Structure formats: structure tokens, C-alpha cells
Amino acid sequence: MAEFLIEIGLEEIPARMIAGAEAELGKRVQEFLTRERLLENDATVKTYSTPRRLAVLVSGVRGSQADVEEKLTGPSWGVAFKDGSPTKAAEAFAKKAGVAVASLEKVTTTKGDYVGATVKRAGKAAPEILAGELPKEVLAIYWAKNMYWRAGKPERFVRPVRWIVALLDTAVVPVEIAGIAASNMSRGHRILHGAAPVVIASGGAYQSALRDAKVIVDVAERRQIIRKALDKVTRTVAGARWREDAALVETVTHLTEWPSAIIGAFEEEYLSLPEEVLVTVMRDHQKYFAVEDENGKLAPHFLAVLNTEVDEEGQTIIRNGNARELRARFKDARFFWDVDQKTPLTERVESLKAVTFQKELGSYHWKTEENLETASFLAELASKAGVKFDVHALTSAVQLAKTDLTTELVKEFTELQGVVGGLYARAQGLGERVTLAIYEQYTPASIEDSIPVSVEGQLLGLADRIQTIAAMFGLGLQPTGSKDPFALRRAANAIVKILAESDLPLKLSEVAHSALTDDVNEREVMAFLRERLSFYLKDVRGFSYDVVNAVLAADADDVRDAVARAEALTAARASADFEAVSAAFKRINNILRQAVEKGFAVGSPDAVKAPEAQRLKDAAGALAPEVAKLRQDRAYGEALGKIATLRPVVDAFFDKVMVLDPDEAVRGAHLGLIDGVLKGFSGIADFSEIVTS
Amino acid sequence: MFRLQGFWAERGCVLQQPYDVEVGAGTMAPETFLRVLGPKPYRVGYAQPSRRPADGRYGENPNRLFKHTQFQLILKPPPVNVQELYLESLEAIGIDLKKHDLKFEEDNWEWPAGGAWGVGWQVMLDGLEITQFTYFQQCGGMDLDPMCAELTYGMERIAKYLQDVNSIYDIVWARDPETGAEMTYGEVRLAEELQFSVYNFEDADVPRLWEHFNSYEAEAHALLVKAGELFGREDASATEKKRFPLLPTYELALKCSNLFNILDARGAISVTERVGVIGRIRALAVGTAKAWAVQQAAAASS
Questions:
Q1: B271 touches chain A (CB under 8 A)
Q2: pTM for the complete prediction?
Q3: A568-689: which CATH number, 3.30.450, 3.40.50, 3.40.120, 1.10.730?
Q4: Which residues, including other chains, have CB under 8 Å from residue B30's CB and lie 6 or more apart?
Q5: Subunit contact B271:A355, Cβ cutoff 8 A
Q6: Is the Cβ pair B127, A288 closer than 8 Å?
Q7: What confidence tens digit (pLDDT) does each residue in A45-86 have?
Q8: Is A9 helix (H, G, I), strand (E, B) or coil?
Q9: Domain A2-65+125-212 part of CATH 2.40.160
């Protein structure tokens, strides 16, 4: 059992692409070895990466493939041998199979006797197979952006390949990738180790040899080192904590081979800039972690993760360098802030005409006008339903919502759109409600994010998104498959989430209707929103798919109501009575479908004769108004409990009564009865959708 | 700057003086834009004052300039140790890498109007971007073969860093060896930054700039039409092809590009117009590049 190591040495790979490529290379190598019958059953595959390398270490590789025997079948025996002598057909088959004529065998099948041959194929040695096929696997790795570097453009890869290590135990496997022949020589940290090659004796020595050359190849270990280093340097400031930022930890993990951290400081005066701006500058532009004090307030410090280890003098140099750059960025931000204040948001509405929203639709000025109409429609509905909010603040917020796109600060920090508008509204005294609504307009930014706190923000968020969806649908720009260039699914997810988690009594159809124009197919927009509601219930709220189907079959318009019904149904389905009733409903559905197929008429239930049918009719008749009342009061748990009490009569009915009675009148009455039961109790959910055991 | 030039001269680079037509970046000078085309190996380095009218800040911002200086280097094809050579060049200008934090962070570059793009990195030294390192893949809408490495050093930033000053304007540009009197970047350039900001943002005459633009465009376009006819003629002699003035045609395209940038800074180009105008410049730049490639091939085969 051998160990196989492959390391692809590259110029710095973009950090965002490393994790995916590392996993893909591991998978490709494993599948390749499996396919080539070179992997032991108990083999282990471990992957490594740094900005300059991707590596896979496999323990449990066979030195060569096992020999295989293969049975080939040729022409019929009678054709191959005439009077016991081989014919031309026998000779041709033997030649093709690579065996002597004398070793041909008779194979007896149900169709008669045939000529057979047993062919032995010697397994190939692992190095031969690896050298032949592995380069294709490596070069097939997916990269979001590729380049070529050699003359004649023979291959494309993320960055130039500079070295290859390929070892089967201690022997170099003669692999050649992108013109680079494999050796046992890797490279260490650019600066801490320098250009001298790092000899890798075997796969088992890989990690330690590179560790000696100041490279930590294990990603998890580097991540851990970074977290500890951040903790350690933060402790030098009393009461300070670094702000957790898992995405940033990932980025810096993939930017370093030998990480360490420093803490630096900036002047307190910059804390007068909004925290959002400071954090964005630190995180997005400098890849620094923010530091907060014991009250969670931003402290005038920053943490930088380095790809090196330096002495005291170096630390001072690096700290000063980073601090100076951060200060310059903050100064820039303040410059933009000050410049932007010279033109208040209220004077920026006109200049939105110069900012394109979508080239076939128009500018953000057009978008604002549309949003105003959409928002006023929604506001009126909300108002009528008794929702309290400041309609003037809402109008101002919608009017000014996009004006921050014309500010220098947003041009510089695009990720802060909305936030900057809100901060400026506050600074310009436009009132807290306007401020908050503008600030929160893009929340929830993701499905995990929370919804706007203010009603004005919720209404603005709904109006802005549904207007975008409807307008894009009007142009035929619906998302298809994995393609959703305008992030319309995310927009619709946010609409559903706002409706589900706010107190707004708006229905999906009302929201859709608020933005409809002549060009837009309302049913298409509704279907899209419903699909997002289904996604929300299943993937975000975790309801099982049959509960979601049952609930949405009854009604898919009122989002909060759907959530409440899904909750009640999830709780109720556990009871045995309820399950039995669900099974009965499914049966009812099937029978009614059959009846339609066979053209059976549905009559009045009054004509039922059997006592079990009579009892079901009475019980259902008595219960229906009660359940309807409970449904109206949204007492879904109680309603479902009531429905479950139907079990004995329903069971008895199906036990004793032949529903599809040969007598047409009786059958019609039965069908009328069960149709009534189904309709009467399907308002909360279509129970026939529930999967029963 | 001397040391940087010396370093690369010792490695076989032609040292050129700045190109004397307004450009937005060293890439746009013909020493890069046209020389990267075709199969002929070439190594060149030059400082290039680069004008970005919209980046002007009236001399008030310590980090941003209307006109900054790039040291532009083209290595065609790049040697396999191009990154190591680059690090040596940093050591050569006095940066002891053992005392700094250096990272190559993904940063891809493109100039749509030139049909040019490449992949590469911004080289970060202690959190400061000191160099744009690009592997040029396409130029003039054509794949480059061989491709080349383009290193663009931001000279003001590096000088600011090496001298440990907080503002570009505080960089010491010269020091009198006898009196020790210093001449700063601000003393040399501040007036230029201020006045060009005023011009670009406030005073540039929009209708006249458009007139200039249209007239340069018309001349370049006429030359390109002529070039197309000449290169398409079967009986055109090698001498005729070789002497066709494509380099002047490209200069006219650069004039248009600079005028566009001023109009843009002036706020005179709406978003809808923008794409169209870039397309017009692209037609000139890419058209010249394509013609240049044909001309070079003709010259090589004669």
C-alpha cells in the first residue's frame, strides 16, 4: 500500500477560488484512482492548499492494477470449426482476442455453442497510469477566470503552473503538467524561506517539510493560527474584542502561507465617521478586522493578518504602513462625506436621471417615480387595514431612497448604498423615520438577515423589489435555471420574508398587483412569488414538503397565515387520529378522481341510506361550521383537533360502505357526501397532500 | 526611479522616455498598446505621467491626483521567474522585504475601449497597493501570443511610502546637497493639480471639446479607411504598407480618449451616451491595433 502525493505549484491563486479548487482536485484524484482500480478500500484522501499550491495526499494507493481476466465470445462454433479444424473465422477471432487458436474454448449458451476466449490483461503500474491521465484531471479543474501563459496557448489555468511534486512513496512519478515535469522539489515561503527548493522525501513528510520552509499547508490549521493570533494581539488592549467575521477569516486564510497578526491604532477623531463606513473601509478595502470595546462600540484599533513573521522593527514598520494607509482611506471617506453634504439628498433627485437603472427601462429617476406609485398603492392598503405609520415619511423615503447613488461615498463604497442614504438623511435632519426607511431599504440582504424594523422601511423594501421584479418580467428577463442576473429570486425571497415576519397585513397578490403594468403577466409574477413562498416555508422555516404542499394548496396568498397553518399542521400530524383522517382524505381524493374519469354523477348527500354514511353526514355537518369559525379566528391547532375527531365516523364509513355503489342514486349520494367533507375541511390545508405511513 | 530603471535596464529592458501625448495609463502608450501585439519579443520600461481628470481633487486630497506617474514595464514574453524578478526590483529600490508584509491579491485589469484585458494581482505592501501586476491576455480585441507581463508601479505611492510621509505633496523631490533645502512634490505640482481640477470640473468648454473630439475622430477614421483599402489591395507593395501612418492614427485615437475623460469629469456625458462614446473610441483604438498587426506581419514577411 503506497502513498501518493501531488502538489501543483502556482503563482498566487485568487483567494476566493482556492477552497473550491482544493476540494475539486481531491475529488478528481480520488475518482480517477477509483476508476483505475488503484485505490484500496480503506484509502484516505487529504487535501491541502495555500495561495501558491494545491495538494492531495492519498494513503492506500496500489502499486499497480490487479490483473484481470476477461471472457470474450466470438462466432458460433459451427462457423469457427469445420470438421474439427479451425476456419478463417476462428483465426480472425483468435487474432483479435490476442490468443492462440488452440486455446479457443467452446461456450454453450441457450442460443447454441459459440467460440470463446479467455484474455488475461496484466494490470498497469500506478506511475504509468498517473503519468498518462492525471494531467487531464488537473487541467480540468474549474476556475471562474482562466488565463494562458505559454506560447501557442496549449492550456488555460487560473495562473501559471511553476512546479509539480508527484511522489509515489519516495519515487517521483513522471507526470508532466503544462510543460512542467514533476520532481520531489517544492517551494517554501517567498520571503521567509526564499528561492531554495524544498525537498519532499515522501507524502508523509509533506506537511513537516513545508512547515520547516515556513508554509502551513493545512487550511484548518492556518485558520486556527489566525484566530489565535487575532485573540492574542487583541488582548494587548484592555477590554477589547475583535469583531467576528467568518468570511474575512476565510479570505485571509487563503491569502497567507505563514500567518501572523498585528494590532494597530488610528486617531480617535475618525470615530466621528459612521461605524458602517469605518468597518467597510477596514473589511472590504484593507481586509482588516474591526475591534470593539467592552460595550460593543467600535474602538480606534484595527487588526491586520500578515503573510509573514517579522521582528520588532518589522512589526513597527508594518503597523505604521498599514495605519497610514487606513488613515488615508478614512481621510478619503471623510473627504467624500464632506463633499456630499454640499448637495443634500433632496437636491439629488434630478441627477438620478443620469444613473441608469436598466437600459431598456430607464434611469433611477424613472425607478423612483415607479416606486412612488407602487409604495402609495401598498401604503393605502396597509392604512385601510389599520397599520400605523407616517405616510409622509414613507413618501420622502421613497423619493430619496436612490439619491445616495449619486454621492461620492457610495461611488467609492458601493456596498454601502442605502446605509449612506440613511446616514445622510439623519445628518441632513430629514427625521428618524425617513432615515431608518432609507437605511433599511435593502434589508434583508440575505435570507438569514433580519427585516426592516420600521413599517416605512418594510413598505419601501416591498415596493422597490416588486417594482423591479414586475419591470424585469415585463421585459422578459425572468430568472431561468441557475441564471438570475438581476437577483430577482433574492428580491422575491425578501418580499416573502418581510410579509412573513412583519405585521403588515398584505397578501402576495396585493403586493404583486401594486406594481403591475400592461406589459406584465400577473399570473407569471404570482407563480414566481408563490414558488419563493414555498422555498421560504421549506428551506428557511424547515417545514416538511408535504406540509408545505398541503398548506399552499389551500391558500398561497397570505404569507403569515400560511406560516401559522404550516405550524399547526406540523404539530397536528403527529397524532394517530389526524394521520388516519389524512389517509381518508387522500382516499376521498382518489375516489372523486376516479368518479370524474368514469363520468359518475355527484348527487345530493341527502339521499344516503347506510347508517355509517348517515352518521358521517351528521358529524361532518355539525363540525363544519365550528371548523369554519375556528379557521376564521385562525385557531388552526384547535380546528385541526376538531377535524381529527372525525376519525371514527370516517373509518366506519369506509369500512362498511361501498362508496362506488352500483346503484347510481346511492353512488351519487355517497360522492356528494365525501365531496362535501373534502371541501368543508380543506380550508386550512389539503390533507390529501400529507404523506401517511 | 533611477534605481528601478537601472534594475530593469540591467535585465535587458529598453528604457524609454514618457510618451508625449496625454494618456490615462502607461498601457495606452504605443510602447505597450501596439508593441504587445504580434510575435516579436520585447522588453521595455518607461515612466508615464497618466491623466485621470475625474480623479482630480484640487490638490486637497493627500492620496489622489489628476496626474500621477506610473513606471510601466512590459516583459514579452515574461520569464518564468518574473515574480521573483519583481521582488528583487523592490529590494533594489530599498524595500527590505524581510521587514514588510507582501501579498499578491487578485486584481484583474481591463480597458474596454482598447479591447484589452488581463488577469493578475494588486501587489500589497503593508496594506498599500504598490504595483498592478497583469498578465496581458488580449489587446485590440486580439489574443496575445506570446502574452506578456505588465508591471505598473505607482511611483507617488511608493515614494510616499519610502519617505514615510502622509501626503503625496510632502514627498521630497530634490534636496540641495549644500544647503539641504528641499523641493517637495507639492511645490512642483500643486498648482497643476489645482488648475487642472478647476478646468476639468468647471471651465472646460463642453461644445468645443466635442468639436475637438469629432474632428480628431474624423481624421483617425479617414486614415483607418485608407489603411483598410491599402492592406486589402493585392498589388500593394511592402514599402507602401510599411510607410502607412498608423502611429499617428493611434495618437488621434488617444486624443479622443483624453477628451472623453475630460468631458466625463465635466459631467457632460450621460450614462446612455457613455457606452456609445466608448464604442467610438474603441473602434479607433481596436481598428488601429488590428491594422498595426497586419502591417507588422507584412513587414516581417518582406
A1: yes
A2: 0.80
A3: 1.10.730
A4: B19, B247, B250
A5: yes
A6: yes
A7: 999 999 999 999 999 999 999 998 888 888 888 888 888 888
A8: strand
A9: no
